[in-house]
Amino acid sequence: MKPNKFWAWLVFALGAAYFLVPLLATFIFSLRMRRNELSFDAYVSVFSDPRFYGTFGYSLAIGAVTIVVGVLVVVPAVYFVRLRMPWLRPVMEFVTLLPLIIPALVLVYGYIRLYNSSSIIPFTSSAFGTDILLTGAYVTLALPYMYRAVDNGMRTIDIGTLTEAAQIAGANQLQIIGQIILPNILVAILSGAFLTFAIVIGEFTIASLLNRPAFGPYLVGIGTNKAYEPAALAIISFIITWGAMGMINVLGRFAPRTSARTD
Amino acid sequence: MTDSTSRPTRRRIPWDYLAVAPFVIFAVMFLFMPTLSLIGTAFTDRAGNFTFDNIGGLFTDQILAAYSISIRVSGASAILGALIGLAITLAIIRGRLPAPLRSAVMTFSGVASNFAGVPLAFAFIATLGRIGLVTIVLRDVFHLDLYRAGFSLFSFWGLTLTYLYFQIPLMMLTIAPAVDGLKKEWSEAAQMLGANQWQFWRYVGLPILWPSFLGTLSLLFANAFGAIATAWALTGSNLNIVTVLLYNQIRGDALQNPGLGAALALGMIVITSLANVIYLIVAKRAERWMK
């Protein structure tokens, strides 16, 4: 058993090196903007660019709308399918898996061809319409994760009993979903929301093909024109991703632990 | 399952269908219709007639080369990612490394598997690019010039090495439950029957992990195959992978034929579907062992 432990540490150390060296190297690289000394000049340069705030704010706003739309689309559907139409579950599972099978690039190509300015629903002919398309694309990208988060959340609470209790107390369907179910799965929804945020915030492909001023295309622009700022932006992005994932971990501690399976 | 439809308080409004409607409408508008219209375009010529010409048009050197390099990069990053990810997971869980280390590694995996796209490309350029820190240190301190030795970050292996940064953590997150499912009793039983470590893994451990391993492998493949942002920020149009080709087609009709572009997209769906069908079949088999 002893050599076992040695190999375990060796494999772990090699893995840790592969993952930590690029982070460390990128961080040091980002500090080397000034000649012969380390400085935070690259970060100052990033944070003094108004386009940084403009594009980041735009992606933040689209991300927020994506989360709200995602919740509105997923929560009622999961609730009613679990409660009344369990035969629909395999279909929902399949549909929410599709975004993992159909590449985002293909999806946005379909959008551009289907909703162009000469079609019945000309989304792409106005900025607002294109924002709707972008949001739709992001909700689709996040669908597998949002669905699984909400589905797991509903599995841990007994929605059948909760619903009956609320009905006996005289609540209507809207009150049941809004005031009983939603608060009970809030932690799960927030986990899905932060994951959605992590996916959406730096997304490049769809935003660039729809010509929207999002953070991802801005990043690529900086990458082609600057030397040290991209490294600084990589570190900033890593911290943002870490923050989003850290929030999910923190939230996990507040999740209900009882697992009253209704299925 | 509690069936409350039989309750006397039932409303006239068909809430069930009303509540599922947004989901259905959304899926139709943003998932099914766009994909179906694209598939339709792939089988339509400029005059609007049915044709197989677009599919046939895929079989040119340029497009086949693009598919081939995409499949090879995705295959290499999936296989290496799966093997390395499994090795690290086994080391952490079966090698009995300290428990806090395990939770730290799993948290990091969650972050790294989502740290993809453009920022990841930036990080690797700063590390292993022509003037990347590791490249410079290796050259000046160890007198090893990577780029003179034939390595380039903007090549097949460079892209594969970069993709591993999100492939390995994804493997670890997906395979960890399966590794956890390897019960202690099994290795004890094997030991009591006189099996050594190698025999345990050969006849018990790996056969049990195999379905999960294979399933995750196809997930990783599809994951890398559809990726473009990292490749785009890393190599621009240098590396002719199929997503970059399609991106250029959408941007400016690079192939000068929308039908051919749609056929290119259809080919991608077919390949990722195949990978996922394998995943679903294999996942069904894997479930037997997870109870």
TrEMBL record, chain A:
The UniProt keywords, alphabetically, are: Cell inner membrane, Cell membrane, Membrane, Transmembrane, Transmembrane helix, Transport
Fetch the InterPro entries from UniProt.
Answer: MetI-like, MetI-like_sf
Q: How does it sit in the membrane?
A: Multi-pass membrane protein
Q: Which stretches are transmembrane?
A: 7-31, 56-79, 91-112, 132-150, 185-210, 230-251
Asked if the keyword Aminoacyl-tRNA synthetase belongs to this entry, the reply reads no
ABC transmembrane type-1 domain: residues covered: 56-248
Cite the Pfam families for this sequence: BPD_transp_1
Q: Which GO terms describe its biological process?
A: transmembrane transport
What's the domain of life for this entry?
Answer: Bacteria
Q: Which organism is it from?
A: Devosia psychrophila
PROSITE patterns recorded for this chain?
Answer: ABC_TM1
Q: Output a single Gene Ontology CC term carried by this record.
A: plasma membrane
Transferase recorded as keyword: no
Instruction: Indicate the family of this protein.
Output: Belongs to the binding-protein-dependent transport system permease family.
Name of the protein in its database record = Putative spermidine/putrescine transport system permease protein
Q: Where in the cell is it found?
A: Cell inner membrane; Cell membrane
From TrEMBL, chain B:
> One GO CC annotation, please?
plasma membrane
> Which InterPro entries does the record cross-reference, listed alphabetically?
MetI-like, MetI-like_sf
Family per record? Belongs to the binding-protein-dependent transport system permease family. CysTW subfamily.
Q: What PROSITE patterns does the annotation carry? A: ABC_TM1
Task: Provide the protein name.
Answer: Acriflavin resistance protein
- Domain of life, per lineage: Bacteria
Q: Coiled-coil segments, which residues?
A: none
What UniProt keywords are attached to this protein's entry?
Cell membrane, Membrane, Transmembrane, Transmembrane helix, Transport
Specify the protein's topology with respect to the membrane. Answer: Multi-pass membrane protein
Say where the protein is mainly found.
membrane
Subcellular location, record wording: Cell membrane
The answer to whether keyword Transmembrane applies is yes
Q: Which Pfam families match?
A: BPD_transp_1 (PF00528)
Which segments cross the bilayer? 17-43, 63-93, 105-126, 146-166, 200-221, 227-247, 259-282
The signal peptide here is none
Ranges for the ABC transmembrane type-1 domain? 67-279
What biological process terms from GO does the record include?
transmembrane transport
